[in-house]
Amino acid sequence: MPLLATTSLLLSSASAALDPIVIKGSKFFYKTNGTQFFIKGVAYQAGFGPNGGGNSSTAYVDPLADTTACARDIPLLQAAGVNTIRTYAIDPTKSHDTCMSALDAAGIYVISDLGEPKTSIDRSSPQWTTTLLDRYTAVVDSLAKYPNVIGFFAGNEVPNNLSYTGSAAMVKAAVRDTKAYIKAKNYRAMGVGYAADDDQSVRAQVAAYFNCGDSGSQIDFWGYNIYEWCGDSSYTQSGYSQRVAEFQNYSVPSFFAEYGCNTQGGAAARKFTEIPVLYGSDMSPVFSGGIVYEYFQEQNDYGLVSVSGGSATTLADYNAFSSQIKTVAPSATQMSAYNPTNTAGSTCPTVGTNWNAAAALPPTPDKGVCSCMMSTLTCQAKSSIDPTAYGALFAQVCGYNNGAACTGINKNTTTGKYGAYSMCNAVEQLSYAFNAYYNSLSGSNKAQGCDFGQNATIVSASAANTCSSVLSSATAAASNGVSGGSGSGAASSTSKKSDGAPLVGATLGMGPYFAVGFTLIATISGAGMILL
Question: With a threshold of 0.90, does the pTM exceed it?
């Protein structure tokens, strides 16, 4: 069939209503016929690299709302033998009906990350707030109606070395609260997972942490961004055999969330000889397939397809990938015959030199609590504050009196202690600190104490009668902490991709500015403490 005709058919046909994918034990299955499902995927999003860094100016184009691109690309994805795409940032305010229907008709499922460049968990200044929860649940709401959505990633490569292990607590809280939201909304089962990088210093601890504790905070699936197989490698030389040994008893599905090393001659030289091994008898009992990075040819030279002037041209590695993925036939089991024995979660890593995320997690963000807190304040931060000033203002107010004004917004991932209002947005947290400092003053000092360079103002407190009990409950919950499990963990070895595209992950557009404040505050408050 000509490409134009195929495209027209895909975009005009009614949804084929793909059989939803469900999870049992450590495997994926088609819900209706119970056949095991293996991901044969491609990362599909142009314009940025999906790492948990901090570039708040990074824009993005929602690939599931770009109907022109979908009409151009879905036939090529289908022709290559793809059954899953991974998207890294979608716009929940836009319609995804056309692209999702076309993907459904082409037999293609979707796994989407929940964040976007300005609103996701930033490893350098991690937090879990009402603004982030709103973003993540909005993505769930926008995609829940499509049967070809497998699930979501709550984070991508956030704790990617020993410097950032504390950020895992924020991501795990996001997993917990997104799972709870899906259940509360009575949506069909959709998994919430995490995509980890392959850094040998932290990968074992990260895998254990997201799989430990109560089931409500455990991930539903594990994505591994792994670039160990480069050129003509092998099951043992690549380290794949070690990864299989590490995950053979993991209690949830594991798969490669990104793969496709390009260090041996760039994208054009990729042969994808790892594909027969990944879907072969050594690996398919443990790993449920993988997602090749990436569809679009960009500066980082990982593309399967080159797009120019609205037209798409397949590249050498597209043909190599397609020829390999179409020939695999992994040994599958039926859901009815599968009785998982690896049902126990992992033991949580021990907090210490190489791990700074305690089992107790940050509180679930609650706008009602934050609103009540704000209504009790007489000194508040102005909503017009330039976000670039946040870091310096937090450093200023939390630097007074040994940080006494910031007790209610402290975050300590090492001890698992979180202030009752640490989950509020930036202006609310700053208002809390301003007000606490203001109330510590007296006489003439107090008259000038609510200014902070004209960034604060006096207002009339007007708390509702119900706020007293709301705030008391929030304070009590923060004092008790939120359990996520306990225990110990270990480590192992790797190689990694070098991604030349921009980074994703600045929190609320303020990550770099918060980092300035944290650097100043840390000298006062001690390691492990995050004051935002």
Answer: no
